[in-house]
Design brief:
Elements lengths: L8 H5 L3 E4 L4 H10 L4 E4 L8 H12 L3 E4 L20 E5 L12 E5 L8 H9 L6 E6 L7 H10 L3 E3 L19 H4 L7 E5 L4 H9 L4 E5 L4 E3 L4 H14 L5 E7 L7 H13 L3 E7 L14 E4 L4 H6 L7 E2 L1 H8 L14
Parallel strand pairs: 1-5, 2-3, 2-4, 4-5, 6-7, 6-8, 8-9, 11-12, 11-13, 13-14
Antiparallel strand pairs: 9-10
Helix pairs in contact: 4-5, 8-11, 9-11
Length: 347
């Protein structure tokens, strides 16, 4: 199955939204037709430089006030809240696809910033001349999903067996990667010997390496540079050592985000219950954007994080006490074994 150019029916039906590949006349027409009183524009860090020009352009084209959400944007899970832009009735979110099972508080237009960059033939040739397995799963960032079909075809013409999986209800597209969900890869993990991530940076391939027990490579379609395989054993061993270090921790903080796409209070309450069943103390701490300084000076031994799993996996060293994911917390309590390692997948 190759990535579709449109989101799944569930993604369309679950949202008061529209999806656009890029900023252009179609987006402007849709904004005019929506007749908003005010628009809030959210952009990821990589696009901040041009955000003011875009806001001015949308303001001119629509005749409607446009405000910019200025806090860091980590994904479609933390779109602008009513408190950030209380009078905006339409949001424009750049660089992300909708998450089908996350409810929206206002009409939201997702502009996925699809990229036309990348030569499928040249990329496939780079992969073919590397020691990468021939039974290969393909995972892509939203910006490069359009490379899925042509790159798959080029790889198959060079003798590869390419699989692109359909993920669960949190993913809008086959083959898509989210930092908290790699079920499109998990769906085909049993039929491949390795995975190729197509996109820029290490954020998603590192998450993929945690999530699947297969070697992971990554190719930058802009530079045609192949990296990997990522050392999953080393990543997992580091986490297992951390788990072992807090097995005797008595007082836990259970972290809960108020972001709509990360809010897992039921999970937090279950973890609190499991901690108390083992004679531990566990208090729930609520936040929107977590800063390491928020956890300083607290009389707690360790934390379990129910918000974005990458807080623990990527940024844990920045916090004053150890931060585990929910599966790691259950390992620390002895309810789960250390092996196999379980990624904290959001469903």
């Amino acid at each position: 199955m190759d990535p579709a150019s449109e989101p799944s029916p569930s993604a369309r039906s679950a949202f008061r939204t529209r999806v656009f590949p890029n900023v252009g006349p179609e987006l402007v027409r849709a904004l005019r037709d929506a007749t908003p009183r005010r628009i809030v524009l959210q952009v990821p860090a990589g696009l901040v430089r041009n955000a003011h020009d875009l806001a001015a352009s949308l303001r001119t084209e629509t005749g409607v006030p446009v405000v910019l959400a200025t806090r860091p944007c980590f994904g479609a899970c933390d779109f602008p809240s009513p408190e950030e832009a209380p009078r905006a009735d339409v949001a424009v979110v750049l660089g992300h696809a909708p998450i089908p099972n996350v409810p929206l508080v206002r009409t939201t237009f997702f502009v996925e910033m699809r990229s036309e960059a990348g030569d499928p033939s040249a990329l496939a040739q780079t992969v073919a001349t590397s020691p990468i397995p021939r039974r290969l799963g393909l995972v892509l960032s939203v910006q490069h999903l359009d490379l899925g079909p042509p790159l798959s075809a080029e790889l198959r013409s060079r003798g590869f067996d390419v699989q692109i999986g359909r993920g669960d209800r949190r993913l809008a597209y086959p083959g898509q990667a989210l930092g908290c969900n790699y079920t499109s890869a998990e769906a085909v993990a049993g039929t491949v010997d390795g995975f190729l991530f197509v996109g820029t940076g290490e954020f998603h391939p590192l998450g993929l390496a945690y999530a699947v027990e297969r070697p992971v490579w990554a190719i930058d379609p802009l530079q045609n540079v192949l990296a990997g395989p990522f050392d999953r054993a080393k990543l997992v061993a580091r986490r297992q050592l951390l788990v072992a270090s807090v097995r005797d921790a008595r007082r836990w903080g259970v972290l809960v985000s108020t972001f709509a796409g990360q809010h897992r209070m039921p999970t937090a309450l279950r973890l609190q219950e499991r901690a108390r069943a083992h004679g531990r103390e566990a208090e729930i701490l609520v936040f929107d954007r977590l800063d390491p300084r928020d956890l300083e000076g607290r009389d707690l031994d360790a934390y379990v994080n129910t918000a974005c799993p990458r807080i623990a996996l990527d940024d844990g060293a920045n916090y004053p006490k150890p931060v585990l994911t929910p599966p790691e917390f259950l390992m620390a309590l002895g309810e789960l074994p250390l092996e196999p390692y379980r990624f904290d997948t959001y469903h």
